[in-house]
Amino acid sequence: MEVGSSLHAVETVILLLLVLVAGFAAMARRIKVPYPIVLVLAGLIISFLPRMPRVPLDPDVVFVVFLPPLLYASAWAMSWREFRRNAIVIGLLAFGLVGFTVWGVAFFSDHFITALDWKAGFLLGAVVATTDAIAATSIAKSIGLPRRIVDILEGESLLNDATGLLALEIGIGIIQGSHTPTLGGGFMRLLYLVFGGILIGLLIGIVIGWLEKFIDDGPVELVVSLVVPYAAYLAGEHAKASGVLAVVASGIYMSRKSTEFFSPAVRLQVNAAWDALTFMLNGLVFVLIGLQLPYVLNGIHGKFGRGTLICYGIVFSVVLIVLRIVWVIPVFKISAYVERHWMKHNVEEMQPREVFVVGWTGMRGVLALAAAISVPEIVGAGRSETRNLIVFLAFCVILVTLVLQGLTLPVLIRMLGLAGNTGMDPEEREARRIVLRAAVHHLEEARKRDRNGDEHLYDDLIHRYRHKLAAVGGGADGDLETIDTETMTRSRSILEDALQTERRTLISLRDSGRIGDDVLRTMERELDLAETRYQGTPIV
Q: What is the pTM (predicted TM-score) of this model?
């Protein structure tokens, strides 16, 4: 009976959370505010309502249940070409900025927060040093940031877990007095975290990619795609490497290879299911952040005055933002110098306004809060008080970076003239020209070889392709709809060859680096829709 009542209570809480996610996300879109911000604020307000079920945040649930699929989805959507192009900047942010933040927070805490010494400040810095891939991706894309800024933020937030995990291990070891870290030992541990996690993720990706060749069933493919991130994360953690980097590596690898082993119909099914899953999990994560305020306040209640806590939270959040901006400004100068003079790359240096936006967009999310809560209760005078203050300050940073920075970003990018452009991207437009020209050339060559009297079918398709090419080349998006049903029923094999030519050309453009993965996915979806449309049309 008790088990049944417990299950009923869990079902009620989950249902309530899902209703909150759906309702407030819809409201966020109506008022044109990024939905993570609305969901966090909604969770904050609802947490104080009477008779509201209390939903504590279990770090294990965050790290094991929520984190793997959300990181996998972010890695899947990331453009490998853009990641390689911005590798130096991303590396300096993902690794250098974490160390700079940890030392900066340790110094600040030791001198300005009386309840924290240098050791506790180091641990606090490790907790809040890493930006959140979930928060960065969700907010940055929804407000129309320039693509390069989004790519840098995504790459940084996906990679800095290894450095943050190492800093957290060292911080806990220091404050517990279990060991004294050395520079050489820390460096070797970081190498193992990074390369061990990447190797494990790639091995899992290679094995699953090989198995995918024998599967062509939507529901089965969806189950397999869900297994990959959890398997990669658990394998990475079991090997004491970075489970997050294992998930990221497998996600990038599987995304690149999905053009080979997914059929059009299966790809459409799996992508649609993952869109719904990531939205639901993202929504639950941000609501849960807001719901944690009562627990945070209960832990710190009576230990400090309200004014002291507010002052600590505001000042500490400002210090963290300033530390990021101070590091980011020279990083882009250094990166541009290295690429131009050492690597001989002709790169365009980012403008100061773009650099400032990168510095301003250092959002923390549920990972920082879960890391703070996962800090063990340390035996000794004042140590429980120290842990509770760390949790409170981490919560304050999350609120400030998510809500304040998230709300000001749209205004900021408009003021700086960085609002996203409407219409088709020039790279996508050129890719469409190349792909359509390849299809026209293929049809013209096939018409010359035709011996079945189907010249009129080739002429009809060539005319339609040329019409689409003229629409793209004329500077407008044009009518890019697929071929009509009547034509498909009369020329299925001819159209299939033309679409396959488009697909091969598109993949070759991606593989040669002429287009990014984001452009490929946009155009690939159109080809998938076209192919499934004619495959579903009976021949009469």
A: 0.87
